[in-house]
Amino acid sequence: MAPTTTTVTEASISTAVKNQQQRHPKARRVCFSFAAYAKKVIQHLESCNVPIAEGLTDDEFSAVESQFNFTFPPDLRSILQEGLPVGPGFPNWRSSSSQQLEILTNLPILSLCKQVSIHNFWAHSWGDQPNDTNEAVQLAKRFLKNKSPILVPIYRHCYIPSSPNLAGNPVFYVHGADVRLASFDVAGFFHRVDFPVWAATEPRRNRVLDGDDGEFGAAVVVDWGFGWVYEGCVLEGEEWRVERRRGKGDDDDGRWR
């Protein structure tokens, strides 16, 4: 059966966040600057035996951003300026070849297009699915490239939207048609270090996350690591939407239980 789009209200998101915080309480100290937080992130990664190279320079940031046509969000930029993780799974923005980095930045779109090619995924907003597989893939690729924010790789299959260029964008796990929220922001993604005062405590309401009806997309309430997982999400239009395949036991109205 074709996937359906599911949304939940802002109130249900707030409830989910509160429930998560009650289940997983954590004492938090605060940092008062990007630089202080970035330093703690790098120190934590070093304590986990992740190799850290010298941070990226302004010229190196400019070269990467110019080549791949995106701007690093300021919180991620501060971390990479403090130190560049070069362990397995981390993108090496300094030493990796242009081809390797291009593959990394294009991987989310390529993965979804692969699902389209094997008739495992199609978004309603793309219109009727063409019978010709190549035509369907090209149509999906055009929608994803032209109407979706570029995703910047952080670690393995985890990415952060480059737009809007503000601290606090969500981090997503993207692998094939499996898209999950990893964290409300990059600060939460590195949750084992102290949270800064600007760390997000709820999803940012913006063009990347909002649905057509003004409600948050259901993707933003997925709690990565605690079992709230959806199969099949997609960057649709200018926001994240959930494309849910119904399975045995799903309600006819498609509501998320």
UniProtKB/TrEMBL annotation:
It comes from the Eukaryota. InterPro entries: Knr4/Smi1-like_sf. This is Knr4/Smi1-like domain-containing protein. It comes from Camellia sinensis (Tea plant).
